[in-house]
């Protein structure tokens, strides 16, 4: 049974791009967690934990995390959340976690608006805000710990920024130098963390301009 504390709208906003099969898998994972916890109902906590497990991998329960690392991860994730809160009309923060999962030391979840989910359209300002939010973790590390003590924790953030920036230049016509045309065989959805094809269908000269615009 599903608990009364489960808000289906919030679940929908935290699972953009999920298919029916993906949602079924999410609920199955939540049901398994509820059974392990000897609960009679699936609560919002089980669904939230199951979603984190699907997105980032299982919780590293046996991992020994020092207080220093916990502090660093907390500031890193807070950097994402703070920049997101400061960006006009950006998605609200849904949850912040410093529990290590998979390759991630922590996670910050944002909940897209219903209008944005239904339309599937993203403005240039939204994409720029998304990149700023992704870089917020590294900026927080620099501010709190200094340039010499930043970590590799932002590597996935940099990959996300590169994906979005390249899509803006190659597919969405947001570069004045490239113009309102689509170049390259980019595939995948950068907003869902999917990779893009590296196939190129333009000259080396154009490739140099694209790379410069992405940077």
UniProtKB/TrEMBL annotation:
<dbReference type="Pfam" id="PF01434">
    <property type="entry name" value="Peptidase_M41"/>
</dbReference>
<keyword id="KW-0472">Membrane</keyword>
<comment type="similarity">
    <text>In the C-terminal section; belongs to the peptidase M41 family.</text>
</comment>
<dbReference type="InterPro" id="IPR027417">
    <property type="entry name" value="P-loop_NTPase"/>
</dbReference>
<dbReference type="Pfam" id="PF17862">
    <property type="entry name" value="AAA_lid_3"/>
</dbReference>
<dbReference type="InterPro" id="IPR037219">
    <property type="entry name" value="Peptidase_M41-like"/>
</dbReference>
<protein>
    <submittedName>
        <fullName>AT5G42270 protein</fullName>
    </submittedName>
</protein>
<keyword id="KW-0482">Metalloprotease</keyword>
<keyword id="KW-0809">Transit peptide</keyword>
<dbReference type="GO" id="GO:0046872">
    <property type="term" value="F:metal ion binding"/>
</dbReference>
<feature type="domain" description="AAA ATPase AAA+ lid">
    <location>
        <begin position="5"/>
        <end position="48"/>
    </location>
</feature>
<feature type="domain" description="Peptidase M41">
    <location>
        <begin position="64"/>
        <end position="215"/>
    </location>
</feature>
<dbReference type="GO" id="GO:0004176">
    <property type="term" value="F:ATP-dependent peptidase activity"/>
</dbReference>
<dbReference type="GO" id="GO:0009535">
    <property type="term" value="C:chloroplast thylakoid membrane"/>
</dbReference>
<comment type="similarity">
    <text>In the N-terminal section; belongs to the AAA ATPase family.</text>
</comment>
<keyword id="KW-0217">Developmental protein</keyword>
<keyword id="KW-0645">Protease</keyword>
<dbReference type="GO" id="GO:0006508">
    <property type="term" value="P:proteolysis"/>
</dbReference>
<dbReference type="InterPro" id="IPR000642">
    <property type="entry name" value="Peptidase_M41"/>
</dbReference>
<keyword id="KW-0479">Metal-binding</keyword>
<keyword id="KW-0378">Hydrolase</keyword>
<dbReference type="GO" id="GO:0004222">
    <property type="term" value="F:metalloendopeptidase activity"/>
</dbReference>
<dbReference type="InterPro" id="IPR041569">
    <property type="entry name" value="AAA_lid_3"/>
</dbReference>
<dbReference type="GO" id="GO:0005524">
    <property type="term" value="F:ATP binding"/>
</dbReference>
<keyword id="KW-0862">Zinc</keyword>
């Amino acid at each position: 049974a599903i608990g009364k504390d489960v808000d289906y709208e919030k679940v929908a906003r935290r699972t953009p791009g999920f298919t029916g099969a993906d949602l079924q898998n999410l609920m199955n994972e939540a049901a398994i967690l509820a059974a392990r916890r000897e609960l009679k109902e699936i609560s919002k906590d089980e669904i939230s934990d199951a979603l984190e497990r699907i997105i980032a991998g299982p919780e590293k329960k046996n991992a020994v995390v020092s207080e220093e690392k916990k502090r660093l991860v907390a500031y890193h994730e807070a950097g994402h959340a703070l920049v997101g809160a400061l960006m006009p009309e950006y998605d609200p923060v849904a949850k912040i976690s410093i529990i290590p999962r998979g390759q991630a030391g922590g996670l910050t979840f944002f909940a897209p608006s219903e209008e944005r989910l239904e339309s599937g359209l993203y403005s240039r300002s939204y994409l720029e805000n998304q990149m700023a939010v992704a870089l917020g973790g590294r900026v927080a590390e620099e501010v709190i710990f200094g340039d010499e003590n930043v970590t590799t924790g932002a590597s996935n953030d940099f990959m996300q920024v590169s994906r979005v920036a390249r899509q803006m230049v190659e597919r969405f016509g947001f570069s004045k130098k490239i113009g309102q045309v689509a170049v390259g065989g980019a595939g995948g959805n950068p907003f869902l963390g999917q990779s893009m094809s590296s196939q190129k269908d333009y000259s080396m000269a154009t490739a140099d301009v694209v790379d410069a615009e992405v940077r």
